[in-house]
Write a structure and sequence with these properties.
Layout lengths: L8 H14 L1 H14 L12 H15 L6 E2 L2 E2 L6 H13 L3 H26 L2 H12 L2 H7 L5 H20 L4 H19 L2 H16 L8 H16 L2 H8 L1 H16 L11 H9 L3 H4 L1 H5 L6 H19 L12 H12 L9 H26 L11 H7 L14 H16 L3 H31 L1 H9 L6 E5 L5 H4 L9 H10 L6 H14 L6 E6 L12 E6 L2 E6 L4
Parallel strand pairs: 3-4
Antiparallel strand pairs: 1-2, 4-6, 5-6
Helix pairs in contact: 1-2, 2-5, 2-6, 2-22, 3-4, 4-5, 5-6, 6-18, 6-22, 8-9, 8-10, 9-10, 9-11, 10-17, 12-13, 17-18, 19-21, 19-22, 21-22, 25-26
Length: 574
């Protein structure tokens, strides 16, 4: 990454296409990223809750024309700022309101992330290191999965990573330190606009620990601090500041209260043990996690950059292990620094030079993933033999869904994964690591794509498929719709819930004269109104087979059952 990339976006694009033209390996890296991330984006319905939740916020921006206020069911959604929803809304304008559009921003972020780590690796070491780092990241399970998803984290992580990188360069080199401080602040501000103040917290904690370890010998000067702070402020002001000016302290208070809630108590039941994220990262980032162990275990770092990324990794892991709400993707920011540490290890050793315990753990995890890629489809194929040991009636009925057909060939997808692992080890033993990584990245990407199409899509059809099919079947009707006995966002996105008729908006208008309020306090009143009140529109209810409440209400009639869901209708009384 040469100095040109700091001048203008045009220079960045010129550098990208120049490298694309002159470097066959970089061209392969980018082409593989596109093929890995893009084609299967629309293969599976969005998953409750986060994917549907975020896509719904973007859809409501388009429906209302209000791109400033983040909403779900046309009421304020305090959990996230709007930048990712702006990207999704822009994508939906291009591709329509669908799964592909909702996930496309992350696929684009994935391609950019792979290009960024290549250029950073090339700049800091050489082209070989940049390629190793890029292909190695493509070989990891959770990073690839998230680039194919509709959650916020891939975009957020890219901004944090760039902010942290430029801050490190501003501290460690005198050249262009003010420009680098500016870019660090800009990307940090974008991170805040994507997921909130935690974006600033991760960068600041990494900085404080690093300068402490360096005994305060690398402190930035006042001008650098001022530039960074002003850039963070002005970029984040685009939403937070304008919101305060428009709505007063109420706006920022509600947002901060929700963020504190996430940190101090397990919101929505997401309570896990302290070590939860360590387990997730260790298994989910294979092979990065195993190959980074020699770097994580050693006391002395080879370079200051290695020290910097090690600190960021531990900041993420410890911070999200402390907070009460633990969700699997919260620790995903750890993947990028972890991938750098893994790349520093594999770039300088042959397979046989790795410590024996590393090779053993590597093969054990590879075997576990092999069993998973075989076991999931085998369970689907022979699911009827497991009904007697399944304790959840909802799951049993879901797997009895007659619309889902398993051929028996689905487990063969694992052959691509096994071939990728074998070729990586063989070529690595022959001192051709880069070739082995290329083959592993290609075959692993094929494995995930085929698994998405032939396994995940069928599992999703067993679980939430009947719910979404029903919602799409009544789309466009002027009716009330609600789940009973479970929480879902599917009725908003797949029914394409309008602002009116809307049972929640009706109650909100009556009790609060249309003033914004939170959904949860009113939820307890909306369901009784739909069940027993004087409704002017027909009402549809969806319940799991384990819920019997609606069966006891005479004027609510069951109209069908599919998979693990029952569907009911109540006719309008007015």
């Amino acid at each position: 990454m040469d100095a040109k990339i700091k001048r203008s976006p045009n220079a960045l694009m010129q550098l990208f296409f120049k490298e694309l033209y002159h470097s066959p390996n970089f061209r392969l890296l980018i082409i593989l990223s596109v093929i890995a991330f893009v084609p299967t984006l629309g293969a599976v319905h969005l998953f409750d809750w986060d994917e549907i939740n975020f896509a719904e916020s973007a859809r409501e921006m388009i429906v209302t024309g209000d791109y400033f206020h983040v909403q779900v069911n046309f009421t304020p959604f305090w959990e996230k700022p709007p930048l990712f929803f702006w990207l999704q809304a822009g994508s939906m304008h291009l591709f329509g309101i669908n799964e592909f559009a909702a996930r496309f921003p992350n696929a684009l972020a994935g391609i950019i992330t792979i290009a960024v780590i290549y250029f950073l690796g090339k700049r800091e070491r050489d082209e070989r290191f940049g390629l190793i780092w890029g292909f190695l990241y493509l070989c990891a399970f959770l990073p690839q999965m998230y680039f194919r998803s509709g959650i916020i984290d891939p975009v957020f992580n890219l901004f944090i990573f760039l902010s942290a990188y430029y801050l490190f360069k501003a501290l460690s080199e005198d050249e262009k330190k003010y420009m680098r401080s500016m870019w660090s602040g800009v990307f940090c501000g974008l991170a805040i606009l994507t997921k909130g103040p935690v974006g600033l917290l991760l960068v600041i904690l990494t900085f404080l620990i690093y300068v402490g370890i360096k005994r305060f010998k690398v402190l930035p000067n006042v001008k650098q601090v001022g530039i960074f702070a002003l850039c963070v402020f002005f970029v984040s002001f685009l939403w937070f500041g304008v919101g305060v000016l428009e709505s007063g302290p109420w706006f920022i208070k509600e947002f901060i209260d929700y963020q504190i809630d996430l940190l101090t108590r397990p919101v929505a039941g997401h309570e896990q043990p302290f070590y939860y994220h360590f387990v997730v990262v260790f298994f989910g980032t294979f092979p990065l996690s195993v190959l980074s162990l020699p770097s994580l275990a050693k006391r002395k770092r080879d370079t200051e950059m290695e020290r910097w990324w090690t600190i960021l990794f531990w900041v993420v892991m410890i911070l999200f292990s402390i907070v009460s709400t633990k969700i699997v993707h919260y620790s995903s920011m750890a993947y990028l620094p972890l991938s750098f540490l893994a790349a520093t290890v594999v770039a300088k050793v042959k397979w046989g030079e790795l410590r024996l315990y590393i090779r053993i753990v590597f093969m054990v995890l590879a075997s576990i993933f092999t069993l998973i890629f075989v076991g999931l489809p085998l369970f689907g194929v022979f699911r009827d033999r497991f009904y007697h040991v399944m304790k959840d009636p909802f799951a049993v009925e879901g797997f009895k869904n007659p619309d889902v057909s398993w051929t028996g060939f689905e487990p063969l997808v694992v052959l691509f994964f096994i071939a990728g692992i074998v070729m990586l080890v063989i070529y690595w033993r022959q001192n051709q690591l880069l070739r082995g990584l290329k083959w592993n990245a290609v075959l692993f990407s094929v494995t995930l794509s085929l698994t998405t199409i032939f396994v995940v899509r069928k599992i999703e059809a067993h679980s939430q498929g009947p719910l979404i099919d029903f919602l799409e079947s009544i789309k466009g009707e002027e009716v009330y719709v609600a789940p009973v006995g479970f929480k879902s966002y599917a009725q908003y996105f797949y029914f394409e819930q309008p602002e009116y008729p809307n049972a929640f908006k009706k109650i909100q208008d009556e009790k609060f004269d249309g003033e914004p309020t939170l959904y949860t306090p009113l939820e307890a009143q909306v369901r009784p109104f739909m069940k027993y009140g004087d409704i002017e529109y027909d009402a549809y209810f969806i319940a799991k087979v384990t819920t019997v409440e609606l069966d006891t209400i005479p004027h609510i009639h069951k109209i069908g059952q599919k998979g693990g869901y029952k569907f009911y209708k109540r006719e309008a009384t007015q």
